[in-house]
Amino acid sequence: MMEITWVVGACLSTLLVILLTSWIFGGRQGALPPGSLGLPLIGEILELMIPSYSLDLIPFLKKRIQRFGKIFKTRVAGRVIVVLSDTTLCRYVFQQDGKLFEPRSLDTFSKVFAQEATNVSDVHRYVRSLVLKHFGMEALKQKLLNQLEVEFRAAIRSWSQQESVDIKYASGTMALEFGAKKLFSYDPKQSSLKLGEVYFSLTKGLMAIPLNIPGTTHYKCLQNRKKAMSMIREIFKKRRASPEKRPQEELDLLDHLIADMESDKSFLTEELAVQLLFNLPFVSFDSVSTTLCLTLKFLAEHPRALQELIDEHEAIRKNREGSESPITWEEYKSMSFTIHLINEVLRLGNISPGLFRRTKTVVDMNGYKIPAGWGIMIATSALHMDPEIYEDPTTFNPWRWKDCKSEAMVKNLMPFGWGMKQCAGAEYSRVFLATFLHVLVTGYRWKVLKGGQVCRSPMLSLGQGMHIKFMQKDI
Prior knowledge:
By secondary structure, the protein is of the alpha+beta class.
């Protein structure tokens, strides 16, 4: 009898907790978005990680948008997330960034990139300013454009002497080492640690189930993080203890970090500085290199686009006073078809399914109330593949941008964010890709030997890579 009473009491208590929770989140705060939180702790991450071998929107998002609409909730990698795929709602999040929302990633990203340990909003504003100083428009105009061209000429010349090049790894390593040189004067010839190998392994662990157990992908990811952090920390301590006197134009980002630490920026600590120097190169390694690979894949599959690209760059080269003169900023701005091509690759590529934020307070959105501390995913991939916005969205068509009004482009194309809240490296990424293509198509031909199979799980990858043979043109 006592056992029956205990069971009934436990059931009633559980029911009471459920009713109270429903009242707190439903009655007092308003209705939550529709959706499912999946299994305890892991949520719906297992379904999210099911591979999809298509450029189309991943089934995880497509299925839920069809069922729940353009705002729904889920739980992934330990965090409750509200997913947005409506243009107006996404723009609202960007407009209120820093007020109602703050930058935040999934738990896996946060552990790898240590985002939990700092005041994210303050750090984000500071890092944006710092990145713009070293990789923004003025830096691109004054020095980076020509430095990138020199880097690409040397790299592609070297690749042309090889029978086969895994372009994902090769271009990623090139982008990483160039970026790391600008960040903390990294010299791969002098370093015992090859950053390319370390960061390549990190990409495999970012969307893995966050189990820090020996043998798991996530565990290996964290171990490689320790190696890179140790190297960067050693560079930082050595530089801070014995500052180098260099001309202003030769100062790297680390020099400015150390100088700012001595000023009134109290949130800057050694650990944060080292973390920033670890985080920033990842953008160059993964997103830029993957976009470059996709560009070469599309060009190899679409001869008409390749020929129009070649014609544009040959015309630029022939109009110079000297055919070997470096690219000018005016020439870059004149590469209209190249920019259309890059826009289309960015739209189709969707390297990440979305951009992440977190609510700082309770937020009213589309008739729902989003609790403070919940994650927000701006599903840019859903916007880019929306048939109501783009005709035949899964079709590669760079010419769709030819007659596209600037307002429509800004409104619907969000690979780097939107408006003033765009990623600080947005223009750098475009210049990187355009300059690489100029060097490539004016001096080389290439052939895809194997690979190039697209896979989303949910981050975009090219399966076993993409192997290319580069051949110098007879000019």
